[in-house]
Amino acid sequence: MSNPSLLILAGDGIGPEVMEQVKRIIGWYGDKRDLTFDVFEDLVGGAAYDAHGVPLHDDTMAKAQKVDAVLLGAVGGPAYDDLDFSVKPERGLLRLRKEMDLFANLRPAQCFDALADFSSLKKDIVAGLDIMIVRELTSGVYFGEPRGIHVEDNMRVGINTQRYTEAEIERAARSAFELARRRNNKVCSMEKANVMESGILWRDVVNEVHQADYADVELSHMYADNGAMQLVRAPKQFDVILTDNLFGDILSDCAAMLTGSLGMLPSASLGLPMANGRPKAMYEPVHGSAPDIAGQGKANPIACILSFAMALRYSFDEGAEADRLEAAIEKVLADGARTGDLMGPEGGTPISTTEMGDVILEALDASL
Ligand code: NAD
Ligand code: IPM
Ligand code: MN
């Protein structure tokens, strides 16, 4: 049987720095666990723009469609701020999500015990936190038409359209209910049905799917603004949060701070099963290219490494190996390994991106 294949798109800014550590971990699995991947690499974002004049080359898109999973670092940065909108780095990422039809974006927020003091919230509010945000990723205001900047009556008008079909809401809802059944069996769906028709439809469809097939799962609804407040007030009330593309983007950055740092949050973007039964999939940290620290060896690679752990779990049916990697990370954090973003009030000396990779590899060795 051939090896599973991975396409690595490290991207811009800290993307290549954190992905370097993931590559070492992929190598470790080949050497020590006989779990060898065929790894391909290509460009995305500003790096692809510099090489090809587009943020994602058609050949790269075609490769992404063929592999078993894509691992993405981050895209964007100030050097590309003035580019035409159509070729901005972020368009490359959005094209991957849309053309691979990765409609279910799983963004877990787990607070590791060792970091409970590092959250900007009080320890007892976040200790033991384990929530999963399911963000619809291929529709909504990110992709709705009409869109653009037009001139009307001598005035510029910026337009984006929030648009959801029943089918799009239904498949996102099914993903959330299925996940909840494997967790604590609770889904809270967030929209703004009080002011948006798309929110009314969202709530109706979620209720219909629930009544038809998931009545055993506890379902609640919340307006997304209240949801943001509740996430900060009492985040442990949630198990799975189901929400749309834009609210999910914002709520997941908010959830990141519950875990101590944006540098800790992984994600999996999943689509329909391929012929081999694996879902179409891309794994990426929630954070961006962090221009303020790029090139300095300061980035926390854990979000990207945890994204690879999600790949092991969701694409390769290697749940035990994903557990091993997550346990290694938990151990190094418990032992006090901290990149700069994880410096708590008491301060200390941060370790570099590579040093964090070193100690995680040591912990993996120790797990054998
Ligand atoms: P960002 O996530 O890049 O950075 C926000 C803050 O968090 C910065 O202070 C940064 O230093 C810090 N941070 C983020 N990741 C970190 C890590 N791994 N370790 C340590 N600190 C970390 O968000 P931004 O500054 O709003 O955006 C910068 C660029 O990244 C923009 O071009 C944006 O469009 C892009 N972006 C890309 C993605 C992605 O590729 N998935 C996600 C978000 C933002
Ligand atoms: C994310 C990012 C992206 C988004 C950008 C870079 C397109 O913020 O993955 O959270 O808005 O979805
Ligand atoms: Mn975001």
UniProtKB/TrEMBL annotation:
Binds 1 Mg(2+) or Mn(2+) ion per subunit. The record marks 142, 192 as: Important for catalysis. SMART domains: Iso_dh. Pfam families: Iso_dh (PF00180). Its EC number is 1.1.1.85. One of its GO terms (cellular component) is cytosol. GO terms for biological process: L-leucine biosynthetic process. Mg(2+) binds at residues 225, 249, 253. GO terms for molecular function: 3-isopropylmalate dehydrogenase activity; magnesium ion binding; NAD binding. Its cofactor is Mn(2+); Mg(2+). Its main location: cytoplasm. InterPro entries: IsoCit/isopropylmalate_DH_CS, IsoPropMal-DH-like_dom, Isopropylmalate_DH. Pathway: Amino-acid biosynthesis; L-leucine biosynthesis; L-leucine from 3-methyl-2-oxobutanoate: step 3/4. Belongs to the isocitrate and isopropylmalate dehydrogenases family. LeuB type 1 subfamily. This is 3-isopropylmalate dehydrogenase.
